[in-house]
Amino acid sequence: MKTNKSPRRDFLKTMGWSTIGLSTLPLATSSISSCQTKPTEKAQTKNSNSLAVRKNIADFAPDDPEIKLFKDALNILKKRSEVSPLDPSGWQAHGMLHATFCATSIYANQVHYNWYVWPWHRLYLWSMEQKLQKAVNEPTLALHYWDWTKAPNIPDHYWGNESNPLFNVTRMVGPENELPKDFINVGAGFRAEHYKTFGGYPAIKKRGEAQLDGLAEQSFHNNIHNWIGGQMATFTESGFDPIFYAHHGNCDRIWDAWRAYSPKNTLPEDEEWLEKRLFATDGNGTPVDFKIKDLLNTEDLGYRFNDLDLNPTYCNPYEEADKPERNASAQDCVAPLNLETSQTDAIYKEFINKERTHVILHFERAQLPYQPYCARVFFEYDKEGERQSKYTGTFTILPILDLDSVLLQNGVHLQIEIEKEIAEAIEQEKNIEVIFQPVPLPNRNIPDEILKLENISLKLNYEDA
Ligand SMILES: [Cu+2]
């Protein structure tokens, strides 16, 4: 099922791909500092040369001393767990920490499907970085990120066999598999000016309420977790695959890149968010908590990113030629857009000065899959006597588990970016259908369960959704 290629070949291939069109984004670094909060007593403020600098792991040679130290530190954490599985500073305890705050947990602890996702995962990575630093007594040891906008294969460092602490046997992809381009539409997230569109809405407070993830979580974040498969495609075990820290390292970086992308991209000012306490463990495995307002500046947490550059292909409006095409099949979920319940006028008005905008796609009484479900979403409508297909994004919908891991079958939302042509079709009531076309993933079959959707509507914001 998996083949191991020569590391050098794969490395060169990765480099070749990444050098195409590599220019920097219009990053206004000043807008980052304007979002920063004061250093807190809890976080040790370091001067800039004692900061851990997180870099793209795909840029390192296999024998780089920094990678060797990183692996040595991981081996120490793994060894601790072999000696004592409950050692709070070990690999096992750290992996379980993620499970404590995911779908198996009570609402109050849930950090997915909502606006806690990016601050909590930043804290979780900090917690790992602290443990690694302490293990080898190197306070500048840094985690890495896998910039999948530049390198579409899982980097070579993560392959080999069990003797490599970065390897994980459960992945469903191999070193030869490339992430499909449409899995990485960072641009749609960047153009989301409202944090809730990018990063998610407030957490639900009681049973039965609908959840609304941010676009970043439901698109590239979920898509890549699920594409890798194995432990990475689960809430409870993803923290046990070392690629988790490289994938989330890039998501954490994209959160900062989103803030730098436009002065309009600002963080929530709600007390409910800023004052929220999030929990993890420190470098010794001792429980700690941070308020979100103290997690907004990475330097307060002892690290910075080497750069915030991304492959511009994924940041600019998606090229027409790169968009996936609709290939109709019996596995597609097709449902009419309900114009009665959609905010058609409000959406059309949004397009007066815009070519594209973000909307919420809402569907009721959805029968959700028991497995993560990756789909390309299309709108189809009549235009000049022909049926048109318009691609709007690729998303991975996760089964939503209630307390006691009961599968919820309530409404589901997706935040999507649509182009003017769709708004015009809506305005002209052109017999619109929404299509979820499941995406085949390496070494897996499309799930047999066909997604069932009812009463699909489009809303401008959540309050009305
Ligand atoms: Cu998570």
Topology diagram in text:
Blueprint: H1 7-18, H2 29-35, E1 52-54, H3 65-83, H4 91-100, H5 117-136, H6 186-190, H7 195-199, H8 215-228, H9 243-261, H10 271-274, E2 277-281, E3 287-291, E4 303-305, E5 333-336, H11 344-350, E6 356-367, E7 373-383, E8 386-397, E9 412-419, H12 420-427, E10 433-438, E11 452-459
The structure holds copper (II) ion (CU).
Structure explained in plain terms:
With 465 residues, the chain is α+β, with helices and mostly antiparallel strands. It has two domains: 8-314, Orthogonal Bundle (di-copper center containing domain from catechol oxidase); 324-464, no CATH class. It is 28% helix and 17% strand. The strands form four sheets. Strands 5-10-7-8 form a four-stranded antiparallel beta sheet. A three-stranded antiparallel beta sheet has the order 9-6-11. A hairpin with a 5-residue loop joins β2 (277-281) and β3. The longest helix is centred in the first third of the chain and has 20 residues, at 117-136. Copper (II) ion binds next to loops. Keywords: Copper, Metal-binding, Oxidoreductase. It holds the Pfam family Tyrosinase. Its cofactor is Cu(2+).
- CATH fold naming of the largest domain: di-copper center containing domain from catechol oxidase
The percentage helix is 25-40%
Number of helices, counting only DSSP H or I runs of 4 residues or more = 12
Structure ligands: copper (II) ion
Assigned CATH superfamily of the largest domain: Di-copper center containing domain from catechol oxidase
Strand-residue proportion: 15-25%
* Biggest sheet strand line-up: 5-10-7-8
CATH level 1 class label of the largest domain? Mainly Alpha
Order of helices and strands: HHEHHHHHHHHEEEEHEEEEHEE
**Overall average pLDDT:** 85
Shape designation: globular
CA-based gyration radius: 22 Å
How many strands in all?
11
First and last CA, distance: 44 Å
Keywords: Copper, Metal-binding, Oxidoreductase
Protein name: Polyphenol oxidase-like protein
GO molecular function, one term: metal ion binding
Family: Belongs to the tyrosinase family.
